[in-house]
Write a structure and sequence with these properties.
Layout (H helix, E strand, L loop, with lengths): L1 H15 L14 E7 L6 E4 L2 E5 L24 E7 L2 E8 L5 E9 L4 E5 L1
Parallel strand pairs: 1-7
Antiparallel strand pairs: 1-4, 2-3, 2-5, 5-6
Length: 119
C-alpha cells in the first residue's frame, strides 16, 4: 500500500512541476496615418522609413464604409492612403509632382492612435 501511495505522489509531483504555458490575446494596437485627398497619385511622400516615395494606384486603399456602415459621402470619390507607423514622433511631408510642398508637419502618434489628414 505504501508503494502505491508513493508512486501516486511521485507522479503527481512530477506533473505539477511541468512548464507553465501562457497564451495572451488582446486588441492589436496599430498606429496609422490616413491621408485623404482629391488626387494623391503622382505626389511624393516622406515619413519615417519612407523617403520621397511617389504614390501610385497600388498604394491607395479602396473606399469603405465607416463604423456601423455609416459612410462619409464627401470621401466617397476621394483617394485614400493609409500608412502604418510606430508610435512616437514622425515628420510627414507631401509634395506635388512639381515639388510644391502640399503638407508638412511633425506628428506624434500614441499607442493605437489613428490620425486623419484631409488635403
Amino acid at each position: 500500500m505504501r508503494t502505491i501511495i508513493f508512486l501516486f505522489l511521485s507522479v503527481f509531483l512530477i506533473a505539477c512541476g511541468s512548464n507553465v504555458q501562457r497564451h495572451a490575446t488582446g486588441l492589436e494596437h496599430e498606429q496609422k496615418i490616413v491621408i485623404i485627398a482629391d488626387v494623391l497619385v503622382g505626389n511624393s511622400i516622406t515619413v519615417a522609413a519612407i523617403n520621397n516615395h511617389i504614390i501610385n494606384g497600388k498604394d491607395l486603399t479602396p473606399y469603405a464604409t465607416g463604423v456601423t456602415g455609416a459612410a462619409d459621402a464627401a470621401d466617397e470619390n476621394r483617394q485614400i492612403l493609409i500608412i502604418k507607423l510606430d508610435k512616437g514622433s514622425h515628420r510627414l511631408s507631401i509634395k506635388s509632382p512639381t515639388g510644391t510642398v502640399l503638407y508638412t508637419k511633425e506628428i506624434y502618434l500614441a499607442d493605437g492612435q489613428v490620425r486623419t489628414i484631409r488635403l
